[in-house]
Amino acid sequence: MTIELDVEGMACGGCSGSVKNVIEKLEGVESVVAHHAKMDNPNKVFVEGSVEEAAVVEAIKKAGFNVVGK
């Protein structure tokens, strides 16, 4: 399953790396791609695996970022 989320506050590579690191620690995550300020996918996070979306959203929020619409 693929989860796609819009994340506010990822302004640099360090930010997207922080988001990626917290998500990778969740059980069931197979891969994570976090884009910051890319023209094609601004501030997007893509997660592959059997993890629940709510767990991903909570991890992103605990890392200090906002998920649009969540």
Q: What's the layout of helices and strands?
A:
Elements: E1 2-8, H1 13-24, E2 29-35, E3 44-49, H2 53-62, E4 66-67
Antiparallel strand pairs: 1-3, 1-4, 2-3
Notes on the protein architecture:
The chain is α+β, with helices and mostly antiparallel strands and 70 residues long. It is 31% helix and 31% strand. It has two helices and four strands; from the N terminus they run E-H-E-E-H-E. It has helices at 13-24, 53-62, and strands at residues 2-8, 29-35, 44-49, 66-67. The protein has a four-stranded antiparallel beta sheet with strand order 2-3-1-4. The longest helix has 12 residues, at 13-24. It starts with a strand and ends with a strand. The model has no long low-confidence stretch (mean pLDDT 91).
Coarse morphology: globular
Q: How many strands?
A: 4
Strand content: 25-35%
- Tell me the number of helical segments per DSSP (H or I, 4 or more residues long): 2
Distance between the termini: 19 Å
What number is the mean pLDDT?
A: 91
User: Major β-sheet, in short?
Assistant: 4 strands, antiparallel
The Cα radius of gyration reads 11 Å
The main sheet orders its strands as: 2-3-1-4
Q: Poorly predicted ranges (pLDDT <50, ≥5 residues)?
A: none
Q: Given the helix and strand composition, which structural class is it?
A: alpha+beta
Spell out the helices and strands N to C: EHEEHE
Residue share in helix: 25-40%
